[in-house]
Amino acid sequence: MGCNDPRPTPATPVTAQKELPAKKRALITITAVGDMMLGSDFPNALRMPQKNILLPLADSLKSGDFLIGNLEGVITDAAVPEKKCSNPKNCYAFRMPPGTEKYFKDAGFDFLSLANNHSGDFGTIGLNQTMSLLKKAGIGFAGVKYHQAHRIIHKNGLRYGIIAAGFGWRHLHISRPRQITALIGNIRDSADLVIIYFHGGAEGDGMDRVLKQKEVFHGEDRGNVHAFARACIDAGADLVLGSGPHVARGIELYKNKLIAYSLGNYATYGSISLRGPMGVAPILNIQLNQNGDFAAGRIISTIQLPANEQTPRLDPAKTVAIRMEALSQADFPQSPLRITKNGEIIIKNF
Known about the structure:
Elements: E1 14-15, E2 28-37, H1 58-61, E3 66-71, E4 74-75, E5 95-96, H2 100-106, E6 111-113, H3 123-137, E7 140-142, E8 150-155, E9 158-166, E10 172-173, H4 177-187, E11 193-199, E12 216-217, E13 220-221, H5 225-235, E14 239-243, E15 251-254, E16 257-260, E17 265-268, E18 280-288, E19 294-303, E20 313-314, H6 319-331, E21 337-339, E22 344-347
Helix pairs in contact: 4-5
């Protein structure tokens, strides 16, 4: 079935190797990162690294029970991009070559979101090939409306229900939250934890505030991410994770559930700017109890530098943890969450 088929299809569960049932554990740790584009061989191979840039921090990525991130682009050998840009000088088409899916598998990813503005860079052919390669690699994915809007993944005795939303026509749109909230209700009984991973908000340096209103970028509706995230929690989601602005944003505790409004650029090789806040990002470890409520968390601060071949490295200055604390206090002063200088996320009693 192609991506343009209007008939919704049921999600196919992805089953990982069984271990000790996660339900018997007191806490479950979700590890999440933001945008990942591991180089592009379009229009030539000069923008491709010579190695898997995810491996240096693979131990940190694998430190939790479930690993999730955003696949910014497609994995395909489709030759002709379908992306149309009004300004060719500000036009990016990301094509990772087949085989890149193994890089994500080796780094431990359980799920990748396809609900972003680069998943259609090489049209339906490129997106279909991406999904086929991820399926063969055993990596869960979602984000394509009418094809795979959500996914239920069974791992270590726990059922993770993930819904991916964005702002393009291929995706469940964050400006129409009733589609997503209805889906949350549909899968709530089939999942032990419901996670929303969205792509939204204006992007670039200086776009690190949660405006609590609709954000427009290049004339495109990028959603009211604050209203959207809270609506998802109201509908029964346990955790809401965001990407899209290419900078980290603040976090909020709402009804005992965590919302991370943007996880920034985690691993973005090639032509994406890493200037200032666009070059630092968190590895977010979130501990949830059996009710899906936030219990504790940690931000592992990372940085990408041209001198290190744009490979994510640990940031000893903990720049992004400090930024996210300041942004969280500015945007959500009533939230009890605090981020310490070491990156620990705690609930402070007022």
